[in-house]
Every structure is written in structure tokens, then in C-alpha cells.
Inverse folding.
């Protein structure tokens, strides 16, 4: 199967640049994974497609304001650092700019010296290990000085950082938002619970690899990025009880899907687990747990549209995407949503 098989035409003006004022006012395209039948609704109408006894799996990872803009010391030019992975003891693996000026030993300052940093080592892919120096609690310093690492296709500045967080975000660690969850409001979640749908939370810290295009001609030659995820015993129990009682497990976002599918036993049973996953789901994959998926519209030729195609079939997905383009749906992170059941 070729990467080009997952291409589609997308007018640039359909890439959403800003979030809607009301989270659940986004549009919702429904797709029957078996027949390919579609419907057009709004996200606040989601409860009518859920049933008592179903379970929604949500990713509670929180995006770090991981983009730091400062200057090189002493008295140097501008620099930019993007935090990727916490290596412990004040050291992070980072993307840095300008790379040619930020070799091991280079020093940087952010926020008029509230935060300084030293490049310690160059690692694979041109990333750097950077040691940060600060007073107090690093995450509090980051909240003050850092900016949200918005995807490269979003050109407009974000006015409110919380709009790039889900309302249930809890555990810091992502470099990008699990965007399918951005449509939920506390009121909508309450309404869903009151109708007898259970909510359970897993954690997958989204990495920037999620935006990396698939460059291999054959999809099986693509090297999938790794991301850290975990599932609690409570979440595992809720999923297992849902399956036993005949309910549907509906994952909110591809990150929640990848978490449960990474840790499920061959019989679909879940148990408490944590670790790194590089699971690559594409057509031909047999889902062990997931019955349905709430997701946004994804980039052409991306691993995410391949995952969605594994669930609903490539032809059905591409036909639904063509329909979404015709009906002027908004695409990508701040865009509209799909429900596949």
C-alpha cells in the first residue's frame, strides 16, 4: 500500500487558523464505518449518537507552553528553543534555532534572565540536550515565559492558551494538543455522563512526530515516532466492563486509540500499563478494543488518515473527506470533527 493512496485535495483556506468562540459549535460529520453513509450535524448533537453503556476514552495530557524565544549569550542574536522530552535533572531534548549557532557550550537567556540555558550535547536528528537554570519550579517558569507550540500550518497567534488545551487536560507533557477533545465543554461531558455513558481517561503525551509527513513511498517503510502513554487500572476496568456488557468503546482522538490498542491483550482485555508506543495503525489492522472514534480531519498522506482508514476503509474515508471539502468543513487542529461508528 502506497503513501500516495492517502492523498486528497485540500484548499488552503479550509485549514482552520483559530478556534471557534464556542467549543462545541464545531460541525460533526458522522461516518458509518461499514456502509460509508455520512451525516452532517454539530458537535453539541453528539449525545444523540451515543448509547447508555457506551464508554468514551479521553486523553488527559496537557500541552506544555514549550516554545521559548530568547537570545544567545553574551549579547547575541535571537534564538528559539522547543522542548521535546524531559530527560530529568533540568535537561531537555530540544529543537533549537539557529542550529548552526547553538553548538555544545552555547548559552541562552529567556525572559530577561529569569531562565537561562546551556547546550550540552548534539543528538540524533540535530536535536540538542539543553540544561536549564532557574529559580523555583520549572513548570511555573515555563507557564510565564513559554508559548504554545502550534502546528506549522497555523499562522495566526493564539489569543488564549487554554483554547489549545482540552477542558479535562491534567497531566503536563504534550508538545501538541490531542485535538479531537478540544470540542468538549464541561456541560457536554456532564450531559453525556447523565445519559449513562461512562468516561475514562488515559494519557498519551503527543510528540511533534505527529505532524511529520510520511516520506516513504510504501507505508510499511515508514518509521513511526514513539510517544509515552499510560492507562490506569480504573480506566482499564471501565473499558473491560463496557466490552463485557456489550457497550461500545469510543475513543476520543487517535491518541486515545493508539493508547488502548498498544496495551490491549490479544483478546482485547485491558490492564494497567505504562510505556512508550510506536504503534502504526493502517488498513489491514485488526482493532482489539476500539469500536468507534471521534476525530478531527487529518493531513493528506499522514499516519493519522491511515489510522482512520484502518477503521472505516480507505474509500469510505476519502469519500467523506471529499464531501467535507465540498461542504466547506474546517480542517486540522482547530477544525471540525468526525464521528466514526
Amino acid at each position: 500500500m502506497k503513501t500516495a493512496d492517502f492523498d486528497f485535495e485540500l484548499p488552503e483556506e479550509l485549514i482552520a487558523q483559530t478556534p471557534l468562540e464556542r467549543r462545541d459549535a464545531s460541525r460533526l460529520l458522522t461516518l458509518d464505518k461499514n456502509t460509508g453513509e455520512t451525516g452532517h450535524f454539530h458537535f453539541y448533537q453528539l449525545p444523540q449518537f451515543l448509547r447508555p453503556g457506551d464508554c468514551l476514552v479521553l486523553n488527559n495530557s496537557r500541552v506544555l507552553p514549550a516554545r521559548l524565544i530568547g537570545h544567545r549569550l553574551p549579547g547575541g542574536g535571537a534564538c528559539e528553543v522547543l522542548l521535546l522530552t524531559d530527560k530529568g535533572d533540568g535537561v531537555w531534548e530540544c529543537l533549537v534555532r539557529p542550529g548552526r549557532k547553538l553548538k555544545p557550550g552555547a548559552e541562552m537567556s529567556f525572559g530577561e534572565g529569569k531562565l537561562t540555558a546551556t547546550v550540552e550535547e548534539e543528538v540524533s536528528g540535530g536535536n540538542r540536550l539543553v540544561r536549564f537554570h532557574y529559580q523555583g519550579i520549572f513548570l511555573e517558569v515555563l507557564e510565564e515565559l513559554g508559548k504554545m507550540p502550534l502546528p506549522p500550518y497555523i499562522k495566526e497567534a493564539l489569543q488564549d492558551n487554554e483554547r489549545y488545551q482540552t477542558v479535562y487536560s491534567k497531566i503536563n507533557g504534550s508538545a501538541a494538543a490531542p485535538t479531537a477533545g478540544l470540542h468538549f465543554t464541561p456541560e457536554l461531558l456532564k450531559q453525556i455522563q447523565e445519559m449513562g455513558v461512562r468516561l475514562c481517561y488515559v494519557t498519551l503525551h503527543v510528540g511533534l512526530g505527529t505532524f511529520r509527513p510520511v516520506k516513504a513511498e510504501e507505508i510499511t517503510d515508514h518509521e513511526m515516532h514513539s510517544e509515552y502513554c499510560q492507562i490506569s487500572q480504573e480506566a482499564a476496568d471501565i473499558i473491560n466492563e463496557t466490552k463485557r456488557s456489550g457497550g461500545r468503546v469510543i475513543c476520543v482522538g487517535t491518541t486515545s486509540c493508539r493508547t488502548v490498542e498498544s496495551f490491549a491483550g490479544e483478546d482485547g482485555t485491558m490492564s494497567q500499563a505504562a510505556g512508550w508506543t510506536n504503534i502504526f495503525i493502517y488498513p489491514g489492522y485488526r482493532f482489539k478494543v476500539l469500536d468507534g472514534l471521534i476525530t478531527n480531519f487529518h493531513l493528506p498522506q499522514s499516519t493519522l488518515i491511515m489510522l482512520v482508514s484502518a477503521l472505516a476503509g480507505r474509500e469510505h474515508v476519502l469519500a467523506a473527506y471529499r464531501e467535507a471539502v465540498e461542504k466547506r468543513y474546517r480542517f486540522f487542529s482547530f477544525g471540525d470533527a468526525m464521528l466514526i461508528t
Remarks:
- The radius of gyration is 21 Å.
- The chain has two domains: 3-63+160-340, 67-145.
- The longest helix spans residues 314-326.
